[in-house]
Amino acid sequence: MNGQEVLLPEKLAVYSYGFSCKDLSGLNNHSRAWSKDCVSSGQGSTGATWKGNLEVVAATRPWIVLMENVPSAAKGRNWLQMQTDLEAKGYTLFKIVLNACHFGLPQDRLRAWFSAIRTDVMATRDDSDLPGLIDVLRIPQHLPLHRFILPPGNTYLQRIIMERSQISVKKAERDEKAAASIKKGKVTKKKKKKKQSGKKWVADHWKVRRLLDMPEPPPVPAHIEDAAFKNGMGDREVDLLRIIEEGPSRPDATVQPTVELKHSAPRVVGLSGVKKKKYQGSTSCLLPTSRMMVMPPTVPELRYLTGMEALCIQGVGGGSRIQSHGFTDRELLHLAGNAFSAGCFAAVFIATLAHVDLSRL
Known about the structure:
alpha/beta; 3-stranded antiparallel sheet; 11% strand
C-alpha cells in the first residue's frame, strides 16, 4: 500500500480496517480535491488506501471484511464503486452509519461502517436485515463521561499533569528570551509576521464574541490561569476556553462539560446547540491529537483528557498493558483519535457473523 512489500497470511477469517478519510472528511482541506470520486479514481490517500486494502482482501479471501470511514464515504460514486469492487471479488457489501453514543461510549462520533461477507459463505443470498440486527444491539442510554475519567489521585494522571506543567515552564522561558530579543531589536521579519498572525487568531475570537452578543471579557480568571499552566495551554486555547466556559447567550443552547479546543471558535461554540442536548455529558468526536478539555462537574478542576482516557472513550481498555509499551501521552491521543469505536465495531461484527453460514466454512 505504501510501496513496501508486506508479508500476508495465506488465509484470513476476518479482516478489519479503516481506510483513509483525508479526501472525504469535511475537517480536511484536502477533501475538496477528490471527495466525489476518490475511491473510483484511486486518487488521494483515500483512493490509495482503498485500493491497497482491496488487494489484501483479494489475496487473503477472508470470510468477513469490516471497514470504517466518515459518513460521506457511504454516498454517491464512492459507495457505488466500493460495491462494484467488492462484488467483483465475490463479496456482498452492506453499510450503516452509527454513533458511538448508542453503543456504550460517551462520544458523539458518527461513522459509516461497511460489512462485506464472502458470498459463498452467506446464510442467504437475499437482502439481509444486517442493519436491523445492529439496531437491536443499541444501548438505550449512553454512558456518562465521568465513568471513563481517571480519579484525581491516579499516578498516571499526576505524572501527565507534571509533564504538561514542565511544558508551560519551558514555554515561559522561551517567551522571556523572545521578549528580550524584541527589546534588543533582534527579531526577523518572519518572526514578526508569525507573531501578528497569532494576534489575528485571538482577534477572531472577539469577533465571535460579538456575533454571539457576548460581552468583552474581564481579566483571565485565576482558575483558568491555573488550568493553562497545568496543561501547557497557549494563549489561543485560554481565549477559547473563556468563551466556552461563559457559554453562548442563545436561549436554545446549553454548555457541555467537555469541549474540543483544537477547532475554531465557531465550531466549538456550535457544540452547545440543540442538536447535542440529548448527548449531554459526551465528548465531541475524538480526532488524532485532539485536545479535549474536561470541565467541572465531570472533574474537580479544568484539565485536558489524557491519552489513556481518550482510548477508554473509544472503548479500548488495558491501560497498564498500554503503559508498559512506553507510549507518550501525545502518541496515545493520536492512537485514540484514529481508533475504531469498540462498541460500534462489536455490534457490526456480531450482526455480520449472524449472517454467515458457519456450516460452509
